[in-house]
Amino acid sequence: MTELQEAMKALAGPEGPSDDRAGGGRAPGRAPGRAPGRSPGRSESQGTGRGVTSDLTIDETLLLHSIGWEPVDMVFGVAWWSIPWGVWQWQTGEVTEASTAFAGAMAEAADELRAECAQAGGSGVVGVTVDIRVTAHHMDVSLSGTAVRRVGAAKVGFEFISDLSARDFVLLTQAGWWPLGLAAGASFVIAPRRSAREWAGQQGQNVELPNLTQALYQAREGAMARMQESGQAMQAEGVVRVKMREGPLGRGSRVMQFVSVGTAVHLRDGRHRLVNPAMVVTLDDPAPEFAAESLRGGG
Amino acid sequence: MSPDEQPVAADDAGAPDGGDTGGPPVALPPDASRRLAELEDRPGHKGMFTSDLSVNEFLLVKEAGFHPLGFVMGSSIYHLGIQTRRWSQSQELAKLTEAMYNARELAMNRMDAEAMELGADGVVGVRLDVNYYEWGSDTAEFIALGTAVKAEDGRSYRNNQGKPFSSDLSGQDFWTLMQTGHVPLGLVMGTCVYHIAHRGLGQTLRTAGQNTELPNFTQALYEARELAMTRMQDEANALDATGIVGVRLEEKSHMWGDHTIEFLSLGTAVAKTDGEHTIPVPHAIISLDG
Predict the structure, then answer these.
(1) In chain A, what are the domain boundaries?
(2) Is B6's CB within 8 Å of A210's CB?
(3) Which one in A105, A127, A173, B258 has a CA-CA gap of 20 to 30 Å to A135?
(4) A42-70: average pLDDT
């Protein structure tokens, strides 16, 4: 049997395609009214002929199989934390209530994701979508991804959460690096107002605005430092693909936000393996690069 | 404003006629120094790296013999001055050019200072962005970010100004460049804010319904582009570069209205290293994905 056939067979689940979906739609545990993230029904159905649910593409699934892993189920983790009244109005400097709420919500959502993954029989979650929403009164973090495990592995311990795609996961592991978890940090800083004299003095001038620059710096350093700390707490050797969101919170706001999230990684056996890439020229037709709008300064 | 109110020491580099990208060393804000110190290995403390490189880029940077050290950034929120423009005259707006130079250099020097603090040989994947917010019509945030890297073979890749090289090449381009026996020296740029004259009534009437070139517009755009490109080349010459790769020319009106345009050219200055390099013949492939 070719590798492809094997992979396709594995895709269909341990006992061939399941008729579970045709009959009752979703797994029983998905019924509304159950506590979110604690869906015993799903895990019970796992390994008893139920098919695999995953948002991975066919390519990604095949790639996973090529290194001996398989998707198990889609898993979620959501946490809402409230932010006390008035913290955005009556102070300048860092709003610690908001960054604490972020750290709490992030940890809680990750715990929930981990619990769902363990219940589904997975040992890690790849392709996690991180959705962070900050409003005046609450901080929402929702994580969703695909639980994966080694092919045929029985109950194994939980290993990692990663927002890298399955493709990146395969590449990373081939080079000897393994994901550990999501490293994240956030900071919200309210910039002081300029005095009327400062404002008047700056009109018509080429000058830097120190109050705003400083607030942005403070927010950034706070968030990056927390992200590093959370990575170091996982014994990581690095954080890759850091994504950040920076700038004012809402239009015209003096609140500077900085949120950064990345995947903490470590070198499993202490040795980096080169991937020896080959140079290729694709013969596909290139996408048109010239855009007439650019001449009008539209961007 | 007392000097200690500023996040970093003011920097007066960046005259509109380009040239030296140097300037006095920039002091880092204490928060930044603390964060960067956490990244470094020291007895009893294990360091780590942070990076916004994708996994592909990360592996290619490793492949090229470099190790990422940290995600470095610099930013400046800047108030742009005002300059009067003559309705019927094409001219460079020196004050605005200066502002665009100054603000970008503040951001880039701060990024470089963070990279120096980490002992980096270079910064790859540099992005330069300008964001506009609602605080005021003439206020913009200039930001420079990238990943500081260090050579694993212990060689120094710093440029002739003793600074880490910066490059806006992606990890993929960086690896390919190194394969061809070139090293990046620095991110070079030239900018020119130009006011393009309106046409007079007479001119408009004469050209109505005609197939004709509009020489004043053509000339103005030409001149502005040439100024920006020349300034970029001057910066590259100051680095003893043998070439500039990946040049992009951006033309933006920002917030100045129709007839005022900033021409920004950006690229990575490179130099050929000693020694022969044979470039492997690339395989031709047809990818089957849409």
Answers:
(1) 3-8+50-193+208-274
(2) yes
(3) A127
(4) 76
